[in-house]
Design a protein that fits this description.
Serine Threonine Protein Phosphatase 5, Tetratricopeptide repeat; 10 helices
């Protein structure tokens, strides 16, 4: 029996409106932290993560506002495709792959439960790791996404709000934990030991996306 099968399915169900709230909240989180993300990226990257992510999620908002009739899976797929096109650098393909794989996991269903959402977030993580070839400890967005997903799974048998809160907290802790790491992937890896002492911007924006997920869940 898988870990997901052992989880007691609660009454909470989610739909395209939930996904739209998540995407809107993600855009708001990214916009309000744009300068902070840029500062982080200036230390170990190209100083464009904040601007790129803000531009991409602004475009996602336009998709959300014209998404009447789209199911939750298709909405995530379209959001992911938009991020690939509008976010520069490595973040666009990575985030785009994450949202598209999450959408494909949900498929054509109109509503889904917490276990389905965990499966979708797991598929998103698989998309990130497949494309970026990163693992935990490499100082990337995986260091926030992986612990967030684990925390969500561990807390899924409790109140869903507690589970989303745990996921957000784990993502934030994971992002903070990248500070003492030496980067082994991406632009920051070119700095070698000089990347130590700086929080990873991709892990930080991932924590913002999980904070948005908690907000969407209410």
């Amino acid at each position: 029996m898988s870990s997901n099968q052992r989880i007691r399915r609660g009454p909470a169900t989610y739909d395209a409106r939930f996904v739209a709230r998540w995407l809107r909240a993600s855009a708001a989180q990214i916009a309000s932290h744009r300068d902070f993300l840029t500062q982080l990226d200036a230390a170990i990257g190209d100083a464009d993560h904040g601007a790129n992510m803000d531009r991409g999620f602004a475009a996602v908002l336009a998709v959300v506002e014209t998404s009447n009739g789209l199911g939750p899976g298709e909405l995530l797929i379209q959001a992911g495709s938009t991020l690939v096109l509008r976010v520069g650098g490595a973040a666009g393909p990575l985030y785009g792959s994450a949202f598209r794989e999450a959408g494909r996991s949900l498929g054509s269903r109109a509503t889904f439960g917490l276990v389905d959402l965990m499966d979708a977030l797991g598929a998103a993580l698989d998309g990130i790791t497949s494309l970026g070839a990163a693992v935990e400890g490499d100082k990337t967005m995986v260091d926030a996404w992986a612990p967030a997903l684990l925390a969500l799974r561990d807390a899924a048998s409790s109140d869903p709000k507690d589970a989303f809160r745990a996921a957000r907290a784990a993502a934030e802790s994971g992002a903070a934990a990248t500070t003492p790491m030496e980067a082994r992937k991406g632009r920051a890896s070119y700095l070698g030991p000089r990347s130590v002492g700086h929080q990873d911007p991709g892990a930080t924006s991932t924590a913002l996306v999980f904070a948005a997920l908690e907000h969407a869940a209410g």
